[in-house]
């Protein structure tokens, strides 16, 4: 099935985005959850809270055998699976429209080649918490909005647009026409994250763990920074590194307010 969300936190977050009073038929068809499937053997408070919330939002609840849920999704569904509309992956045209409409300094995250759905989901969740306006990824060699991504994102996929672009280097050049400062992360550079200027219009570029950014992506960055590593570990998981970088930017940007 398409448009599946699973796991207690992810389903609860998706339900919270649903309006309980939708009159327009088209809006009803497009709401992000249309039905919640629940393991009929589970009677605990957490699952009961999901059922109560779904009914409050006028969303159908179907009690099924656990085997059916196992067949629907791969992963730990925790006894609940919701079906609805997957947030639309945005295009390059949307990026132009977003940048033209923003009334504050753009704050963007670029992920160059993140293929693990758990990493993308975690990056979406962190980006939402940090107030990022959009995440940009290349169409090639990058994961999209899979059910696993949505489970890990815990609803952040509803709030942070994911923009897929054909040519990442070209997109970075476009960002520069909007006077957006593009900072990439690279372990071998001398400048550290905490020495860099992360205020104003900003796009942070994160590469994959181990390989880092691709050559053309790297060459089109305005500056490169690294997270200082004091122990024996040479690199961090991309979602962990993303959290460190985004919230250093948040700290600096709040100080400038």
Layout: helices, strands, pairs:
Blueprint: E1 4-6, H1 8-16, H2 25-30, E2 35-39, H3 45-56, E3 60-64, H4 66-72, E4 80-83, H5 92-101, E5 107-112, H6 117-130, E6 134-138, H7 147-153, E7 162-165, H8 168-177, E8 181-185, E9 202-207, H9 215-219, E10 223-225, H10 238-255
Parallel strand pairs: 2-3, 5-6, 5-9, 6-7, 8-9, 8-10
Antiparallel strand pairs: 1-4, 2-4
Helix pairs in contact: 1-3, 6-7, 6-10
Could you characterize the architecture of this molecule?
The protein has a 6-stranded parallel beta sheet with strand order 7-6-5-9-8-10, with helices on both faces. A 4-stranded mixed beta sheet has the order 1-4-2-3. It is of the alpha/beta class. Helix content is 38%, strand content 18%. The chain is elongated. The chain has 2 domains: 4-83, 60s Ribosomal Protein L30, Chain: A (2-Layer Sandwich); 92-255, 3-Layer(aba) Sandwich (Alpha/beta knot). It has helices at residues 8-16, 25-30, 45-56, 66-72, 92-101, 117-130, 147-153, 168-177, 215-219, 238-255, and strands at 4-6, 35-39, 60-64, 80-83, 107-112, 134-138, 162-165, 181-185, 202-207, 223-225. Helix 1 runs parallel beside helix 3 (45-56), helix 6 (117-130) runs parallel beside helix 7 (147-153) and helix 6 (117-130) packs parallel to helix 10 (238-255). It has 10 helices and 10 strands.
């Amino acid at each position: 099935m398409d448009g599946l969300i699973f796991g207690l936190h992810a389903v609860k977050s998706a339900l919270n985005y649903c309006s309980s009073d939708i009159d327009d038929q088209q809006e009803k068809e497009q709401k992000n959850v249309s039905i919640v499937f629940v393991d009929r053997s589970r009677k605990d408070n957490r699952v009961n809270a999901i059922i109560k919330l779904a009914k409050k939002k006028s969303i159908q609840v179907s009690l099924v055998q656990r085997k059916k849920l196992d067949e629907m999704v791969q992963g730990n569904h925790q006894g609940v699976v919701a079906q609805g509309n997957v947030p639309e992956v945005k295009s390059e045209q949307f990026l132009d429209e977003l940048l033209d409409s923003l009334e504050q300094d753009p704050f963007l995250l670029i992920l160059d080649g993140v293929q693990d759905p758990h990493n993308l989901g975690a990056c979406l969740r962190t980006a939402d918490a940090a107030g990022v306006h959009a995440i940009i990824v290349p169409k090639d060699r990058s994961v999209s909005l899979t059910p696993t991504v949505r489970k890990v994102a815990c609803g952040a996929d509803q709030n942070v647009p994911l923009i897929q672009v054909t040519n990442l280097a070209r997109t970075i050049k476009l960002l520069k026409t909007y006077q957006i400062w593009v900072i990439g992360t690279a372990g071998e550079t001398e400048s550290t994250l905490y020495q860099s200027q992360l205020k104003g219009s900003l796009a942070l570029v994160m590469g994959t763990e181990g390989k880092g950014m691709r050559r053309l992506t790297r060459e089109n960055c305005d500056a490169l920074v690294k997270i200082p590593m004091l122990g024996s570990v040479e690199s961090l998981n991309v979602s962990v590194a993303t959290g460190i970088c985004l919230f250093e930017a948040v700290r600096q940007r709040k100080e400038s307010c």
